[in-house]
Amino acid sequence: xxxxxxxxxxxxxxxxxxxxxxxxxxxxxxxxxxxxxxxxxxxxxxxxxxxxxxxxxxxxxxxxxxxxxxxxxxxxxxxxxxxxxxxxxxxxxxxxxxxxxxxxxxxxxxxxxxxxxxxxxxxxxxxxxxxxxxxxxxxxxxxxxxxxxxxxxxxxxxxxxxxxxxxxxxxxxxxxxxxxxxxxxxxxxxxxx
Length: 193
Ligand SMILES: [Mg+2]
Fold this sequence. Notes:
The active site is at residues 9, 11. By secondary structure, the chain is an alpha/beta fold.
């Protein structure tokens, strides 16, 4: 049996939703996020980023820029609360109908949410039990991916979360839990484990 994990979306959950982030300095943590992640770290819970990042496929910036953004994210988390992500997965691919342009990254991918590829890869590589794992996101597609993989799906009201709840963004979804922000989501997760 694998171990439970907490999967975390990036934009609108860990950092402030700001569209496509072209400048590294424009990536800012949502207040309280680093401390909440540190709580999970202190409990020995595996924490894993899972993020759709279609910037490279859209020709907005190279894949190396996404990696630089993730380095900054990890540095801010460490500086603010000594918090860490145990693994980071992201999908740089996008299909042509969705707007993929750069041939190197333009294709349909099992990794693109709401497909489950990132969760399945993480489970294989880190011996995780998806049925007892949690996914925290701010979009309907985050909750859909969670349910597609048998995880508990939590919607936070930061980022696009509030708009999803009022039916103003993406589509209707049925999260297992709705949390004001990551701090509240983590409190609830710790009660379930
Ligand atoms: Mg998001």
